[in-house]
Structures are given as structure tokens and as C-alpha cells.
Amino acid sequence: MTELLIEFFSEEIPARMQARAADDLKRLVTDKLAANGLTFAKAEAHSTPRRLALVVDGLPERTADVREEKKGPRVGSPEQAVAGFLKSAGLDSLDQCEQRDTGKGVFYFAVTEKKGRETAEVLAEIIPAAMAELPWPKSMRWGTGTVRWVRPLHSIIALFGGRVLDGGYDIGGTQGRIAFGNGTRGHRFLAPDAFTVESFADYKEKLRAAKVVLDREERKAKIKADAEALAKAQGLTLSPDDALLEEVAGLVEWPVVLMGSIDESFMDVPSEVLITSMRTHQKYFAVLDAEGRMAPRFIVVANTETLDGGKAVVAGNERVLRARLSDAKFFWDQDRKTKLEARVPALEKITFHAKLGTVAEKVTRVQLLAAEIARAIGADSDAASRAALLCKADLVTEVVGEFPEVQGIMGRYYALGQGESADVANAIADHYKPLGPSDSCPTAPVSVSVALADKIDTLVGFFAIDEKPTGSKDPYALRRAALGVIRLVLENGLRVTLSEIFAAAHGAYTVSGFASAGSVGGDLMSFFADRLKVVLREQGVRHDLVDAVFALGGEDDLVRLLARVKALQAFVGSDEGANLAAAYKRASNIVRIEEKKDGASFDQPVDAARLAQDEEKALFAALNEASATAKPLLDAEDFTGTMAALAKLRGPVDAFFDKVTVNAEDKELRANRLRLLTQIRTTLNAVADFSKIEG
Questions:
Q1: 394 DSSP assignment
Q2: In the chain, N or C: fewer CB atoms in 10 Å?
């Protein structure tokens, strides 16, 4: 078994594209190997700023011989059928075919044997094909070339068993072809000379000697470990930032971690602004003091070693950072001179959506809705209204204009500095939350009220103008908004009626051409059902159980719905529940068939006088008892108790199906037994629509 080594060496590949490109390269090459009948032991892809590499181990020297048989027409078939068969099989005459008796007649068979090919020959075709199919988000042409690649390509290593493959990659124009070879280069500054390699082990070893850490995870681990060590030496800790770590690992081939200082004059600027400026523009890591506050230090990762131990690199980065933070401090100082409330009229100049009005109009709607939600959940409605009035005002500040990532957060700082209460200020900061599954969810009642109002106003507005998510497209992040509403309601245990809130949000709009409140509310509840399935699936809850509860209709209290779903899951997971669900389907199928056959309905009350056998009498009594027991439990929202009451039906139902013939010859007796089966369905459907339960 033999090793394949590929490397594409180019100018710097954007950091955000590297890991995905390495995965795509591995997928494309291995898929093509499989399509050509080539098995392998393992495949491993790597990326650095200047190279993509792939090693595939355990390849055979040649593909296997293949014998193919194709069955043709029966001997004696029309000439046209025979000619078509010969053409499809690539044969010239019937002399090249075999005749076989299949037991159903004698048929022609075309048998072809394809000799295996040298693997090296196949690889020389696979590599250029995979290169052409790499799905770069952005690509370019260079020089006179006509082929696109992410950045100008310099060389290609293509080794199979230590031998260079014949072939290359044609980039078009007068630049011609980049031939496969065994040479590459190391670090751009520290070891720029070319060298050759013989195998992956040799390649990796020589790259390290040439100041290149090939393994992305190794670079990340080194950056993190060295940064933590530098911070610890100063009595500080590294501020966790996995996204920045991922990006920086794609910017350096030989990471050298250094620490710089931030002028104390900038430390009165909110830490979120400082951190955003550092990570967004300079790719610096923040460090924290013992109290968890931002320290006047930063971590920078250089891509080179210097004779002075990095002093000049640090000094240069400190100088650039001073310029960046000077702007941030100036904006911060200027913004505090104007009250948040005085900025609200400026929101009239910002369009929320062409059909939904301005941000100022949205603020007015959110104010009304936040106050109403606050009253429903027992929060301070005046504080909720005040927070809603100010929640978007920081959009017209200089700091947020420069650093959009801190919108809401800056509003909190400005509000506290201008004498607003902590509840109002925190609600301003939290009203966008939660932004995703990993984001924290507000718990303060005023914050929850404003966050719900903002999201529901958006959802109702866009659904009313028929701008709903379609397929993978969701330009207005409505799925995220709905998931945010679900988390706010469930994690805070809010007993709110969503349909009423949707109607209130709809009524606050004064735009023409809106869909009706009922239509919007119905569409939104279906949308929420789909989103709730996503949330519950992550908790191990089956999607069909959510469907079964939603199918009852009129359920828009998510807390109650979730309790019902979880009780239903426990029920159908038990032997009694599983058997009852099966009995429900059996009863429903029998009734449906008979209704279709007779054109009649069997939802009339059971005639107790016509119950002939003990088993049907026992089932009738058990159904009545279960219904009587379950109703008060359902009203009290004791869904577990309700399921326990229904579980007692298992014995009578099993006995009925074992001993009673439903399709009795006596027409009236048969109809009465079908009504009894219908009662099984009705009794169980009081809890959930069991027809939606799968399995």
C-alpha cells in the first residue's frame, strides 16, 4: 500500500476559507478515489496561510480488474432490439456475446473485462479535476491566466509512493501549466528557500525546520498555551475568544505570541469597545485582571521571529492601537454629551423596512407591546416602556456607527451615565438577546418584556407582508427571532398567550396592505411549531410528539405545551403507552375503513344496552372512567397524572381486541362496536392527536 501527498502552494489564502477548503479538498479527492475503485486506509487534510495539503495513506498500486456483465434481449428478438443492445454494450456483433438459459428463456449476455489501471495514471486525472471543483467563496485570475483560484498558485506537490506524478494544472493564457513536482518553500521570511520532499513525514519535518507548523490544531494550541503563559506571568488571564483563535491560526505559519500595553488614558472607555476594536481591526486578544475586568494589556500573535525578541513588533502594534483607540475614546466622549432620549427623533431617518416604516415607528410599536407584555408577566410596565423608547437610540451614536457589534451594550452605558434605572439600562443592553443558542437569555422581567416585544414586532411585521423564510434563505433572521422568543418564554417559565400578543403586535402597525391578524397569527404558530421542534430535538424530544400536541389546535402557551409534550414522551416510551398508541392506530384504521365502506360516521354515543361481551362492557366502563378522571387532571395541567389515568386502559383495550369480533354479522352490534372504537380515539385525543405519533 502506497502514500499520496498533495500540496498546493500559493499566496496567502484568507483565514476564513482555509479550514473549509482543506475539508473540501479531502472530500473531492476521496470521493473520486472511491469512484475509481481505489480504497485507502486514511486521509488527512491540512491548511496554513500559504498552502493546502492532503495525505492519503494505504492506496494500491493499481486499480482492480473489473468484469462486467450486461443482460440483453432474448435470443430470436427483433433485429432492432439486438442492434440497440450491441450499441449500448459497445460491441460490434453477436459473436462477442454469450447465450445463457436463465430458466425463463435463452438470453444474450455481453461480458466485458476491464483491466485495472496504474493508480498513478488515475491520480494524474483526479488531482486537476478536484482542483477545478474546489468551491472557493471568492477566487481570482492572475497574469494572463484564465483559470480562477483563490490566490496566485506557485507550485503543486503530487507524490505517489515518493515518485512525482506525471501531469499538472493548466491555468490558461500564456502562463500555461504548473507541472506536478516535489518542491515547496517554507516560511516567507524565516526560511524562504525551496526544498524537495519524499513523503508526508519528510514534508512535515522539513516544513517545521523551515518555520512552518502544518497542523492547524497544533498552531491553535500553541497560540493559546503561549498566550495563557504570558498572561499568567503578569498575574492576568487570557479572555476566551475561540473565534479569534480560529482566525489568527489562519494568519500565521509560525506563531510567535507577544504582549503589549494599552495606555491607561483609554481604560475609561467601555471594555466592550476596546475589545471590539482590538479583535476586529488588529486581531489582538484581551486579558483580564483578577476581578475579571479588562487589563491594560493585549496579546498579539506575530508570524515571525525577530532578533530583539519582538520589541519592535510590540512597539509598532502599540502605536497602531493608540491611533485606533484614540478614535474610540473621542467618539465615546462625544456621544456622552447628548442624551439618549434626544437621539430618538434621529431614528426617523433610518428605514427599518420599506414596507414597515422607520426605526422610530418600530420603537413606538415596541413601546406599546413591551408595556402590555410587562403587565402580563408582572413586570414594571413603565420601566419596560421607557427601555423600549431608548433601546434603539444608540444606533445613531458615533461609537455604534464605528463598532456596530456593540449596539445595545453602548445604550446601557449611556443610559446609566444619564441617570436611567438599572432595569431600564439592562433592558436596553439585553433587548437583542438571545442572538443564538450559545448566547445568554435575559431573565430580568423588564429585559424579557422588551426583548420579546422587539422580536415579536419584527416577526409579525415580516409575516404580514409575506416576507417569510423560504428554504435556506432567511434574510431578516426570522428563524433566529422565533428561537429567541421560544427561549425567552421557556427559560423564564412565562405563562403568556402568544396568539394574543401576536394580535396586539399586529394592531400596533398602521401600514396598509397587511395580511389579517388571524392569518398572521396562524402562520406564526405553525412557524413556531417548526422552530420548537428544533429546540426540543436538541433535548431529545421527538418531533412527531410536538406535532401531536399542536394538532389539537388552540395551544399557544409554550410552557403548557412543553409540559404536555414531555408527559406524552414519557407515556409513549412506556410499555402501556406504546401498546395504547398501537391500539389507537388499529382502532382508527378499522373505523376509517368501515366509514369509507359504509359512507357512515360512528362518532355517536355507545349504546350500553347493546354491549354483548364482558370485554366490550369492561372497555366501555374503563373509557368512561378514564375520561372522567383525565378531565380534571387536564384542567389542572397535571399531564403526567392524565397519562397515568389513560395507561389503565391498556388491559381492557388488549382484552377487547383479543376476544371481541368488531365486524359482527349483526349490523347494529357491529355499528355499536365501531362507536366503541371511536371512543378510544376520542378519549386519547383529549391529550394529543395520536394519529400524528409515528411508529
A1: G
A2: C
